[in-house]
Amino acid sequence: MKANYHRENWTLFQSLLLQSALIDSAVIPTVLEIIESYKYKGYNMELDKLSLFVHSVLNEHIELNNDYEMIWALSFANKFMICIDENTTKKLTKYENSLVNILVMILNDKNLIYPTVDFSDYKRFIVNNDLYDENWMFLYECCINNWLEKDSTILNNDRFFKQLLQHSITFISPNYSKVKMEVKDIICSRCIKKYSLDANSELLSLLEDVISEYQINLDEDFKEIIRTTLQTQIEQIERTVEEMSSEKTVETEEEMSSEKTVETEEEMSSEKTVETEEEMLSEETVETEEMLSEETVETEEMLSEETVETEEEMLSEETVETEEEMLSEETVETEEEMLSEETVETEEEMLSEETVETEEEMLLEETVETEEMLSEETVNTEEEMSLEENARELSSWSRLFLLSKIDNKRISSFVEEEY
Question: What is the pTM of this model?
Fold first, then answer.
């Protein structure tokens, strides 16, 4: 969340920021951005407090070998052009870390290091010109910046580092600032907005108006950078406008030409269509006449064929009918004969069956009667036999009586048979 503080409170606010950075070194980058942003807003920078902050951080963390805090403190000194005193400079020249060593050499180029500095230890770190040891980055930056009697010949002997040199690769950009880039973008956007309202105004006057309006404090070098970037952006805008206008003119010309071509094509097509339609009509009339003549001939042929077919069909139907009648009569006669024969046969069968049944019944009755007669005779004979045996045993007078009785039975049986 962005906030603006009154100028009379800036001194107190700056002291609180620096004190918080001393307590917690993790906030040093944020504190650096805040103070730098207020610098471009025209607030007064108390360089004594900033110098005290930088030296206290360096002296404290050199003894602890804390590279992070030392790198940010040196970057702080580079942004605000803070000179390093003799005692701190001696400590820094004995410290072995590639990023710290590079930042010290950058400060030395800007005359922010104590003048009588001795870089013998730095030379000892890279004496072997080894691009693959722990100090390779420091050696590379010394070669591209001609520090400590080193030049680019060392890099040209290595295929990989030669490519980095050809593409102007550097690992530290001392003049880069995130806040500075944001300020530049804001100023350029405001200037372009004003230029769009009045294209005849000069760039320098626009730039000065924006700087005075927002009370931005910029050095001359930074103003020149902004002016060049602004010039390039305006040229790009004008170029795009010209391209768009040229594209529009081309489009309009193409549209006009396309419309003309369409009209001519339509006229040509209409004429062609009329001609083709007339040709088609004439051809169609001829074809239709030919078709009609052919159809009449075909119809006549069809009629003649149909008459012949109808006559043949009539004849065939008559013959079929006569044949069917003949067949039907014959079938009726045959059926009647068959029926008469069947009736005769059935009657004969019925009579034969009846006679057979009657004969069987008569035979059954006779056999039954004979069986009854035989059974009665057997019974009579058995009785007679028993009576004779009994008569033998009886007395004479009883025998006579029994014999007379037997004779009576015989007489009676004979009489029954006669009847």
Answer: 0.56
